[in-house]
Design a protein that fits this description.
- The protein is of the alpha+beta class.
- The protein has one domain.
- About 35% of the residues lie in helices and about 15% in strands.
- The strands form two sheets. Strands 2-3-5-6-7-8-9-10-11-12 form a ten-stranded antiparallel β-barrel, surrounded by seven helices. The protein has a two-stranded antiparallel ribbon with strand order 1-4.
- Helix 4 runs antiparallel to helix 5 and helix 8 packs antiparallel against helix 9.
- The radius of gyration is 22 Å and the shape is globular.
- The termini are far apart.
- This is 4-O-dimethylallyl-L-tyrosine synthase.
């Protein structure tokens, strides 16, 4: 598999994909007593300065559920057809999610303007790739963005800032159908010019720099893209309007013929986490203990778990808030096995874990009622899977194959790792509507308020390109994570950028044939 080098600086300077704006300091949120339109224009002008002329004379003809998105759709200039494509098909989902979460209007504006100025260009071409190297592992249809929201278990889903919005992008070049260097992308977005005064620079990039140097010690230049490596960039959107970045590496599978420059300290699909001992001590000495707990589990109680390393990630946060995340995949997925992995074979125990596992079991039984009374029942796909890209069908297991994903969080000064399990519902679900109804049933069972149908309705508004009952693919996953205090659940969503475009084209062809 050949490597490639991209001139990233030239890409950032290309006004077709990245808005050319001066760097600014922190914006001053206008008074909330102003109209939505007045707030949107105030914040947008603060972010863009005199770099672009906004259209201020328009009437919104077909409003969506996001007034901020609608105003910006008319006000902002079109950078290119590529930019417009991802604004229409991906930023539309983001706008809806921000509106549903009831972020302040100034924050909704900041986040959407940042997408327009900085993120459309890293979503790749508008035409779906045909090889594994040209497709993202993030989503079923191979598109590059996955949105998510962390859903509190006790707050009203109509309250202000009622959930945390995040998303991840597998960055691709908008013209070349090649991956971009993940570290160069985060360097740009973290910089003053790339961050536009919105991206948080607290904490620095030390962990990410150390991880990359450890993982690829022979890399000649950070602009090189390691063959077979997948890079994700994560974005945590704050109600303040600020953004915190996260960085992910999914290293290549083992290759005896790999060039020396691209040899990695570890590879995906290994059960051996011992190479991480060399890096965790450098990140922070206290991370050694939870790593050793995890390694001991895999060697003993978890030796038959089937868990294989998949990905490593960290936040770009201050040390006290940062975490090292080790992702692992397994083809085994009974309730008994899930509980075994989430408690590290009984290593994690006590009243807190008992309560957390009881709620995890409730989620499992709501998602998979056919396995509710049999803890040894293997999960299976409840629908016909006929859309896996050919590039993946004969490849090694991963995102497009049956299995569960876990991660284990290592926090500074915490003696144990904290686990999270991801149920890949685009594989295991019956359809997106059934999954959403099951999640709402779980949230109701643990005491979350909300009118009947609120959760499927939120998703349908965010992803209106089709009926949720038609199939799976929009609700990519749902996770349950045990935290130092309590637990959290997160829903993950794909706007199905490529498949939605393909289906729209098919509908148009059928309509033309009838006419």
């Amino acid at each position: 598999m050949p490597s490639h080098v991209v001139d990233h600086a030239a890409l950032w300077a290309d006004g077709k994909y990245f808005a050319q704006v001066p760097s600014f300091g922190k914006i001053t949120p206008p008074p909330e007593t102003l109209s939505v339109r007045e707030i949107v224009f105030s914040v947008t002008k603060q972010l863009l300065g005199d770099s672009y002329t906004l259209n201020e004379d328009f009437v919104i003809e077909k409003p969506t559920d996001s007034e901020v998105y609608d105003i910006l759709t008319y006000a902002l200039p079109i950078l290119s057809e590529q930019s417009k494509f991802f604004w229409d098909r991906a930023a539309r989902t983001l706008g809806s999610m921000l509106a549903t979460a009831k972020y302040p209007i100034h924050a909704q504006t900041s986040h959407l303007v940042f997408w327009w100025a900085r993120l459309g260009g890293i979503n790749g071409p508008t035409i779906k790739g045909t090889s594994k190297e040209q497709l993202s592992e993030f989503t079923r249809d191979g598109s590059c963005v996955e949105f998510s929201w962390v859903i509190p278990s006790d707050t009203d889903p109509t309250a202000p800032a009622n959930r945390k919005i995040r998303f991840g992008i597998d960055p691709f070049h908008p013209d070349l159908r090649t991956r971009l260097s993940g570290s160069i992308v985060t360097d740009y977005l973290w910089s003053e010019a790339g961050g536009m005064g919105i991206v948080s620079q607290k904490g620095g990039k030390d962990w990410r720099d150390k991880i990359e140097k450890w993982l690829f010690p022979n890399l000649e230049h950070p602009e090189q893209v390691v063959p077979g490596c997948t890079y994700f960039v994560g974005f945590d959107l704050e109600p303040s309007g600020n953004i915190t970045l996260k960085h992910y590496y999914m290293p290549p599978a083992p290759d005896p013929n790999v060039e020396n420059a691209f040899k990695s300290a570890t590879n995906r699909l290994t059960s051996d986490l011992s190479p991480f001992r060399a890096i965790v001590g450098d990140l922070h000495p206290s991370l050694t203990k939870p790593l050793d707990v995890l390694i001991d589990f895999l060697a003993n109680e978890g030796k038959d778990s089937g868990l294989l390393f998949a990905m490593v990630a960290c936040d770009l946060k201050p040390l006290k808030d940062n975490r090292l995340k080790l992702y692992m995949w397994t083809p085994r997925h009974t309730l008994k096995q899930i509980i075994h992995n989430m408690t590290l074979g009984g290593k994690l125990k006590g009243p807190k874990y008992d309560a957390d596992i009881a709620d995890l079991t409730k989620l499992f039984k709501n998602l998979f009622p056919y396995a509710a009374n049999d803890e040894d029942k293997e999960l299976y796909s409840q629908h016909i899977i006929d859309d896996v890209p050919e590039a993946y069908q004969e490849e090694q297991p991963g995102r497009h194959d049956a299995g569960l994903l876990y991660y284990f969080e290592l926090f500074v000064d915490e003696p144990n790792p904290y686990p999270k399990v991801y149920f890949l519902m685009d594989f295991f679900g019956r359809n997106d509507l059934t999954t959403a109804q099951s999640v709402e049933g779980f949230l109701r069972e643990v005491g979350k308020p909300g009118e009947s149908g609120w959760f499927p309705g939120d998703i349908a508004r965010a992803c209106p390109h089709r009926d949720l009952a038609a199939r799976t693919g929009t609700q990519t996953g749902f996770s349950f994570g045990i935290k130092p205090k309590g637990w959290d659940v997160t829903g993950y969503y794909s706007p199905e950028v490529f498949r939605a475009a393909e289906e729209a084209e098919e509908r148009l062809k059928k309509l033309n044939l009838k006419n």
